[in-house]
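Working notes for the structural subgroup meeting. M.R. asked for a predicted model of this chain before we commit to crystallization trials. I am recording the input and output together here so anyone reviewing the notebook later can reproduce the run.

Input as submitted:
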Amino acid sequence: MKRFLSILFLLIPGLYSMCQLPAKHEVKKIFVYDMKDMIAPPMWHKTQKAFEKAKETDADIILIHMNTYGGMLESADSIRTIILQSPIPVWVFIDNNAASAGALISIACDSIYMRPGANIGAATVVDQEGKKMPDKYQSYMRAMMRSTAEAKGRNPMIAQAMVDPSIIIEGIADTGKVLTFTASEAVKNGYCEGICSGIPEVLADAGVPKYEIAELRLTTIDKIIGFLISPFVSGLLIMIIIAGIYFEFQSPGAIFPILIAGIAAVLYFSPLFLEGLAANWEILLFVAGVILIAVEVFAIPGFGVAGISGIVAVVAALTLSMVGNKGFDFSSVNLTGLVNSFFIVITATFLAILGSIYGSRKLFTSNVFGGLALNTVQESSTGNVAANARMNDLVGKSGTAFTILRPAGKIEIDHDIFDAVAETSYIDKGASIIVVAYENAQLIVRKA
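Returned structure, recorded in token form:
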């Protein structure tokens, strides 16, 4: 009897465990999303959506399917941060390439898996032309790579060697070149958990026998936002905004240019506002800048404090709307991202002004719009004679400024309206004037 009770006592724990219900997450929920484009604001937008959906669906693992040559450091840093702070484990499957910003993001993940023939590394910071940036940018990247590797228990010097070719690690990085690992080298040095041919093999290698996969599905609105916040489209919208404002100030009352500029401004600021990048005060700063420029052009003689302040406000608003500052706190904004945003704004502004000047000259001489201009030649043989004689007679006569002359405008003499140019840079509307010369088919006037 005692022997029977002893055997029963030994069997009870086993019988108890057999009778228990399966664990809640016996079937693992794997949330997968692709990172196969340039690391830029659209990818940051996509990553935010992925992590939100993963949390909503109570996912056990977030799996990034990566194949990228890198991209913008600011976007990579934002993605790195959300991965490091994620309560859900994040894995990455490198399907061929994890270069530059892609390497930084991969190192932030809890587990790294690579396809045979894949590579990770080459994280030197370069500009838009592929040229190496100054050392202050490299220093920031080195520190970010080290801290990320330390956070995940990986060798920080290896991560730094992926940025700095001067780092020497015997047997690993001793060639004087930026470090890049193959899949087998990454496994050997603790930068890869396994070499797999696909996601099912990744999960099998990780010991996940039962799982269900959910993939990120972006809505149409998400895709539109992702498109609008891409650097190229943002730059194009800035060009349209600046060109529209320029044309409107050149031809007051035209309406169409400022209307186009307004639509472009809405398309520029709206997605950035929805993404939490453009704050209310930045949008108001832009509006205030445009108003200051308008006041300078239409109300104040010359070009001074109001105009310069307006230009600074517009450029600052467009630049700051693209970076992730929190109100007036810029501590979380890295210098590289700010410089990139400023470069986009300045380049787009320059091209817009240059294009506007060129376009205003060519618009009415093109085949498309030539019909809007009067091309008929009025020959003297048919009775058409120039009005030079009459214009010369106006020299010495007095009148009033029919419009503001800045320096060109219109004047009124004996109830007739004439085009004229001020001898000085500015004459107020209604001011008394006197015609001092007729040169180059233009009346030259000064204040009486």
